[in-house]
Design goal:
The protein is of the alpha/beta class and 261 residues long. The protein has helices at residues 11-29, 49-58, 76-81, 128-139, 153-162, 209-218, and strands at 2-6, 8-9, 33-37, 62-64, 100-105, 108-116, 143-149, 169-173, 183-184, 190-192, 197-200, 232-241, 248-258. Helix 1 (11-29) runs parallel beside helix 2.
């Protein structure tokens, strides 16, 4: 199975940049499934119904979430009816929607699990390790992909190694900075700590630099977290797995410059 995963999409500028480059990525990798982390795809922080629809329309099969997944109420109905739109599985059980989606296409059947970390984040209702254990056991599927949306690199690495041999791919999101540690772990799980972002380069993680520095200096929101403008980068990974075992065969990190302003 050929899996394409795109890093955190930031604002409508990130959505449009991805729209421009997804056709070439499809041609290059011929993916069977496309996963996009979309929890920041709205312009006012979080994901909106409009940005979610745009990501599905351009070809995303699954949209994973994070700490901003439930920020906009217009997403609640979408989570409940559009099973490919995920919020973290280890949020409170009363949260709308689901954090698990079983993608089926032809001969392929692959479960995608969206999880959120505990370290330095106050969103998880259930520990991501015990949540992963329970979900994987219940699924009984060979092909499993986990997006661990977490702040601490140690927590992401630990989770990857914890489920090694039980998942086909574990990739990290949330920090918007791609890491250079892509590998196949001893048990056959492809792993990377962070796959980066699809968003504006001249920024602090997609946000206008002055907004971020002002907040870090004063601890006052001031102008808020305004999405930056200008050229973007498209960052993500491509993984191929063995059809019969679900074990990873390869993992490749990519980055595309989008100069259009």
């Amino acid at each position: 199975m050929r899996i394409l995963a795109l890093g955190d999409v930031v604002g409508s500028i990130g959505v449009e940049a991805l729209r421009r480059h997804l056709p070439s990525l499809k041609k290059r990798y011929s993916p069977d499934m496309i996963i996009v982390n979309g929890e920041n795809a709205g312009d006012n922080s979080g994901i909106t119904a409009k940005s979610c629809d745009a990501l599905f329309a351009m070809g995303a099969d699954v949209i994973t979430g994070g700490n901003h997944s439930l920020q906009n109420r217009d997403m609640f109905d979408i989570y409940d009816r559009e099973y490919g739109a995920l919020r973290p599985a280890n949020l409170h059980p009363n949260a709308p929607g689901s954090g698990v989606y079983v993608f089926e296409k032809g001969k392929y059947r692959c479960a995608v699990i969206s999880l959120i970390g505990n370290v330095f984040l106050d969103f998880a209702y259930e520990n991501p390790f015990t949540a992963a254990d329970k979900i994987i056991k219940e699924l009984g599927i060979k092909h499993i992909v986990i997006d661990i949306h977490a702040e601490a690199t140690s927590e992401k690495i630990a989770l990857g190694r914890y489920v090694d041999g039980k998942a086909s791919l574990v990739f990290g999101t949330h920090t918007h900075v791609p890491t250079a540690d892509e590998c196949i772990l001893p048990g056959g799980t492809a792993y990377i700590t962070d796959i980066g972002m699809c968003g504006p380069i001249d920024s602090v993680l997609g946000v206008v630099t002055k907004c971020s520095t002002d907040f870090m200096i004063t601890h006052l929101r001031g102008r808020g977290m305004e999405i930056a403008k200008g050229p973007c980068k498209i960052q993500g990974i491509f993984t191929e797995t063995d059809d019969s075992t679900g074990k990873a065969l390869s993992i490749e990190r990519f980055e595309i410059d989008d100069p259009i302003k």
